[in-house]
């Protein structure tokens, strides 16, 4: 009797589909690749041909230069050597997708990275019932239960109001997190200009080109200290405490990350204002998604695999961890 999903081959360097000779999110250049989203631990340069959403291809081009790209719209079906493939929203960042594979009467969903919270910068996660669900487990421990997004950003705005002579400097990953922080603030009615470290400008511009309204953005470099008092400034996490930040008006250092739940991580980065804001599913969202999809098997990758595998088995769902290499949390 054939083993469930025996036509898909998870390897340390990615998920391989032998029948179609194509990889999903390979960690090294290959001849043919399906890519779930634009973060560097999933989207590498150098592939001979790439299939991804138009937004993900635009992100890859911004980062790696021209791609031999084949755009696949959400819901569009393509076929490769008897394997039906479609991309559906993952709710992670702009253009992020789950890859739905159908072959031999089985359906396998490779979720990539995903979240279930609303996000004004990207399409929401679309649940797809399946036989095998391949899930991330970045925050796959019960301690990780993310608070409401606007409650965290209320802390940022309160700190700004209480310290008009200072600025709030927010460390945020360049793809997805920075744009989400800006967009969520706009939804909350914050209309003041937001200032950017130069390393964030290119991807913010790309989001705007893709139709995401980020309001008025200004460069933070070369601006007088007095202009930056009472302002929100975004920078990459690595710039929070470097020489660049020392010219700012007594910054309140903040960090937007799911890892801010861990106090030691906040202390390590000298973060004064931890903002628990993640683009990954938390423990409750991971387990709720598995309950909702009712897969026959769950394959768990990049993260806290053991705890989620244990939860699945306690709930009579067959599960195993995949040994995929090269995945990082990218300062989420």
UniProtKB/TrEMBL annotation:
<dbReference type="InterPro" id="IPR036866">
    <property type="entry name" value="RibonucZ/Hydroxyglut_hydro"/>
</dbReference>
<dbReference type="InterPro" id="IPR026360">
    <property type="entry name" value="Xnuc_lig_assoc"/>
</dbReference>
<dbReference type="InterPro" id="IPR050698">
    <property type="entry name" value="MBL"/>
</dbReference>
<dbReference type="GO" id="GO:0004521">
    <property type="term" value="F:RNA endonuclease activity"/>
</dbReference>
<dbReference type="InterPro" id="IPR011108">
    <property type="entry name" value="RMMBL"/>
</dbReference>
<protein>
    <submittedName>
        <fullName>Putative mRNA 3-end processing factor</fullName>
    </submittedName>
</protein>
<dbReference type="Pfam" id="PF00753">
    <property type="entry name" value="Lactamase_B"/>
</dbReference>
<dbReference type="Pfam" id="PF07521">
    <property type="entry name" value="RMMBL"/>
</dbReference>
<feature type="domain" description="Metallo-beta-lactamase">
    <location>
        <begin position="12"/>
        <end position="173"/>
    </location>
</feature>
<dbReference type="InterPro" id="IPR001279">
    <property type="entry name" value="Metallo-B-lactamas"/>
</dbReference>
